[in-house]
Amino acid sequence: MLKIGDFSKLSRISIRMLRYYDEIGLLIPKSTDDFTGYRYYSEDQLLVAGRITALKDMGFGLAAITEILKSYDNPQALAKFLSVKRAEVQAQADETAHRLLLLETAVKRLRKDGTAMNYNVTLKTLPERYVASVRQIIPNYDQEGILWHLMMKEIAHLHIQDGTPCYTLAIFHDKEYKENDVDVEVQKSVKGCYPDTEHVVFKTEPPVQIASATYKGSYDQIDKVNEAVANWVRDNGYEFYGAMFNIYHVSPHETQNPKEWVTEVCYPVKKK
Predict the structure, then answer these.
(1) What is the DSSP letter of 233?
(2) For residue 77, with 0-12 CB atoms within 10 Å meaning exposed, 13-18 middle and 19 or more buried, which class applies?
(3) With 60 as the cut, is the pLDDT of residue 114 above it?
(4) How far apart are CA 213 and CA 231, in angstroms?
(5) pLDDT band for position 120 (50/70/90)?
(6) Distance between CA 215 and CA 48 in Å, rounded?
(7) Separation between Cα atoms, residue 231 and residue 116, nearest integer Å
(8) Burial (CB count <10 Å: 0-12, 13-18, 19+), residue 55
(9) pTM of the predicted protein model
(10) What is the average pLDDT score of the chain?
């Protein structure tokens, strides 16, 4: 039999932790002196202690280790526990690798251009949403308000409820930049079901993965924001996959002060 101090040295587990293992039933001493309270361990419990340490090193929590030890001698059951943990660790490793790539990309951009972090690009998924939509060819991009005015006029009598959250956005469907006669669609998230009107169509939009950058101020910044998103897409191994759009978090409808406008520039993307 081994005293707790000797067992601690041989197992390389602190006395404090051994006492805790005893409290939670993970590694109970072979015997405990009723008078002194001293704990005594058998030599074969060193094997159990080694298993606990090995499983902790793999990232298992103590509750999971307790369950694993019950079937440790069953190769199939043990393999199942390990496979699940391996998948979990791999997912964490992939996430860490992605974060490292983002950091490396940001550092490179800062070295090339000290203002590169003015527009932070993030990868996200815009969820499925039910929208009111108007799509038309308009004279130029500055005339987008025509579509919003048309939508508001035709749905006014429907007493529409805004969606939660309420996305108001404009999609630019042309595959190239055009000076005039541009194909633009405006959408507003709504709650409930409504009949189509002459120009307004109600439909469900599927979720979409996007690279986006949000900025505050006038639309004069759009070229720099587009450049930031394009660089991020290139540097992080993605490619464009659909029509770009702007989400208007604070638009001219809320305030006429351009300094207060908040716009999110969004590009659908997929991994190469």
Answers:
(1) H
(2) middle
(3) no
(4) 12
(5) confident
(6) 57
(7) 10
(8) buried
(9) 0.60
(10) 91
Q: Which amino acid is at 114?
A: G
The CA distance from 58 to 87, in Å, is 12
At 95, list the tokens. 């996430």
Retrieve residue 84's tokens: 């699940």
- Which region holds residue 25: left if phi is over 0, alpha if psi is between -120 and 50, else beta? left
Alpha carbon distance, N-terminus to C-terminus of the chain: 61
Domain ranges of the chain: 2-73, 76-118, 121-271
Nearest alpha carbon to residue 122 among 246, 261, 266: 266
Q: How far apart are CA 105 and CA 89, in angstroms?
A: 24
Summarised one tens digit per residue, pLDDT across range 15-46 is 999 999 999 999 999 999 888 889 999 999 99
- Residues 172 and 8: their CA atoms lie apart, in Å, by 68
264/240 Cα distance (integer angstroms): 16
Residue 163 gets which letter from DSSP?
P
- What is the CATH number that goes with domain 121-271? 3.20.80.10
**CA dist., res. 138 & res. 150, Å (int):** 12
Q: With contact defined as beta carbons under 8 Å apart, do 62 and 24 qualify? A: yes
One-letter amino acid of 84: V
CA separation for the pair 186, 174 (Å, rounded): 14
Q: Say whether domain 2-73 belongs to CATH 3.40.50.10490.
A: no
* Residue range 156-179: mean pLDDT, rounded: 92
